[in-house]
Amino acid sequence: MIDHPVIYSGFDTLELSYRVAPPRSFLERLGDAQTLAKADNRAVPVNFCGSELFVEPSGGQGGYAYRAHTGPLGLIWKFREATATSPWSVHVKFRAHGLAIKGPLKMKSEADAFLRVLGCRFDVSDVRVARADFAVDILLDNYRLNTDYIVFHARANVSEHIERTRTGEFFNYVRIGRMPGKQLCIYNKSEAILQSRDSLWRDIFEQSALSRLGLIIDDFRTLEIWRFELRAGKKFLDTKIRPRTWESFLTEARSCFLILSRSFKLKTPTCDLNRTRWPLDPIWRSVIAEIECLKLDHQPARVSDEIWEKLRQEYQDGLDKQLVGLLLSSAACEGVTTETFSSFVSAKVKSLTEDYCKSNAFAERFIKRRAEYVAQFKA
């Protein structure tokens, strides 16, 4: 019998920086799209050389002027103009869903291909790993998180950087350390999934539970899945990987996370007053075992038609909630009562759509919105 069955393990975050110079024409297109995004308060699509980006209303942390993404399973980009003092002008983050579905190597290939389409030239030394998070998800019934049982390395300087949250009497989340150094994060992943209604992770766990454990999940709500996540920021990576290139990371990732697993340890308490002599908790042994088997070319999850349909439905549900909210606000402004709200909505929508469908902008904007939907959901 497996004491602590691991339901899933893999990279939850990977971030890269590129020393490239995005073409000015591309940055200008991003600027125009960002202006529209600010006006609409939503991401707007822009097509450049056949590649579709969804540009956000604001820039990104770190002095990046523009921020964009390529859909729910894609990449999150940040761009700025390259200068002599700031040549690392492009940053990309691989989405957690994309990493689980496609795997790190496929995501890296997509990032490289996009930049080459833009006309950017780069070699091995022009790509650096900025952050890497590796997560191990374990089935633990009635687990009680006790931060007193987490022991730091003797030279670790992280004890003053602890964040904890609790539900009722017990903790359900702890984060120790500070980025861009190193961190340990432990939390109830199944609870987080249920609260966020993230059906994609539910599907990923169901696939993984069947393939790894032969377990068929009938009711996800009955599970307690705890995530043990080790995070390596660029300052920590700089001390372990020289140079901090993608190719070096491929060969050194396992050793980096094994070092992290020794910086933070989950222990089993004994009567010994010296906590460093406490034995490792079997849970932490399971985490280490997953790290020892770490592979960047792991078998990714399968993108089923059902998963795509759920993503599309969640997107539609979000639009419906926004629409209802706007109609409620409009009705409140016009003094509509609850009894007349339904008739008000029918008349309002009919009036707006009839007038707008006659405008010159309707067909063009409708085609663009359809293209945006197809690009995100492969519809």
Verbal overview:
By secondary structure, the chain is α+β, with helices and mostly antiparallel strands. It is built from eleven helices and 13 strands. It starts with 5 loop residues before the first strand and ends with a helix. The mean pLDDT is 87.
Please report the distance between the alpha carbons of the first and last residues: 44 Å
- Share of helical residues: 40-55%
Share of β-strand residues: 15-25%
Q: What is the N-to-C order of secondary-structure elements (H for helix, E for strand)?
A: EHEEEEEHHEEEEEHHEHHEHHHH
Main sheet makeup: 11 strands, antiparallel
How many helices in DSSP terms? 11
Task: Provide the residue-averaged pLDDT.
Answer: 87
Strand order of the largest sheet: 2-3-4-5-6-1-7-12-11-10-9
List keywords for this structure.
11 helices; two-stranded antiparallel sheet; 13 strands; globular; eleven-stranded antiparallel β-sheet; alpha+beta; 42% helix
Reconstruct the topology from this structure.
Elements: E1 6-18, H1 24-40, E2 44-48, E3 51-55, E4 66-69, E5 75-79, E6 90-94, H2 96-102, H3 104-118, E7 127-139, E8 150-152, E9 162-167, E10 170-178, E11 182-188, H4 189-196, H5 199-213, E12 225-233, H6 234-240, H7 246-263, E13 264-266, H8 282-292, H9 305-333, H10 341-357, H11 361-377
Antiparallel strand pairs: 1-6, 1-7, 2-3, 3-4, 4-5, 5-6, 7-12, 8-13, 9-10, 10-11, 11-12
Question: Can you describe this structure in just a few lines?
Answer:
The protein has 379 residues and is of the alpha+beta class.
